Fold this sequence. Notes:
By secondary structure, this protein is mainly α. The protein has helices at 61-70, 152-161, 169-179, 181-190, 207-247, 261-277, 281-289, 298-301, 307-316, 319-327, 334-352, 382-395, 402-411; strands spanning 25-28, 31-36, 44-47, 56-58, 75-76, 78-79, 97-101, 106-109, 117-119, 137-139.
Amino acid sequence: MEASGIEHGDNLKWDLRRMPITKIERIVGGFVTGVVERDSVGNFVCHHFGSNVAPVACVTLDDVASFLRTFPRSGVRMNPGWGKSRATFTSMAFCFDDEQNRSRRFMLKFPATSAIWMVSRAATRPLGECKRVALRFFRMALLPYHKPHATAAQRVAHLRARGLVISQPNVAARKIDTIGYERLRIYFLSRRQLGLPGRPFIPGTTYQHIIQLYECDGKLRDACFLAVGQFELLLRNSISETLSHSFGSHPYFAAGAFKDPTSNLKALQAFASVYEKSKDRRAKHYRDTYGHPVLPPIWTMKEFLTFGAAARIFQCLDSSVRTAVAAQFGVGSDEVFTSWIEALVDLRNICAHHDRLFNRSFQKQPKRLKKVSVPGAAPNKLKAILECLDYLLTQRGIASHITQTAGIIIARHPHMNPAEAGY
Length: 423
């Protein structure tokens, strides 16, 4: 443990061993939303992570802090109704997370990257009112990382000790050597009982079940990558044709093509960067043949654009140009269309870099096109993005059926829960 203390006007060091803990609070968004209180018999009630039974009674808050430090995923019962006092300690707002909010009590996850803050009564006052009040706070020191290297065989032994059924340990070890344990870890964790001591696997879980999850995820990535690639080509061509039709072969300096001078400059920098880095023969031919303009025509330039660069350039275009491009895909709102492009770029990058789709909640979320109720699925899930992609491709005469294709892939892997795949 480490302690640090601050008293306004004076820098003091406090010995945590001699300073009793007077309060443990839960802070969310800078506000105190819960406080540890005693039960009817005068004890503080702690629980192991995910457990509603076998409560651990602690006599003092120091005992509570010791329990939470010893069992990082454990929780302590708080009074959720205590919330009248507020604190604006935005820099210290990482005490607890209420992902395990229960109706009878708060089962509070305690992330390893966070810390417990134990503060005096000054913490219930706005920070600006604490100038003349001694503010002492203490932090549980983050643990140093000491895990040693483990061979694939040792990994297999560890998994078997946790209850995973592995009929061919040597084969499993070779697979881990090939794929990497860290890549498979998210799939292992999905089948472990994280709320139980030792976090054992769900009874009956086999190594083959885990590999099926991994292989299903890979097939989903491949299918999504191909479908998104079709839209990428369509988008680049649509931007090129719309610009060249209205502004000629070299629209790079056309004021009417971009939102404002700043956007024009950003787009020009993006065009120049991809052209300079391109090893394409067409780029070399233009550089070796033509002296002016220094950039090739837009219909050649669009072949050098990455999906991400095309998306950034699209956002720099004038609203009339963006609306014209969006209309070619049956989307009447360039704001909605832009959100779809961002979500598809995100999906494409995940697939291209072999990241997981399994149990993923997407940060880039498509907005709803109300006239056709697309997407219909939750916007942070894979299915929603694929519904948008299906709509865009269908509007251009390409029947990809990627939403259905992904559903079929999931159905062929019975150990994959559709919700885990975003369906």
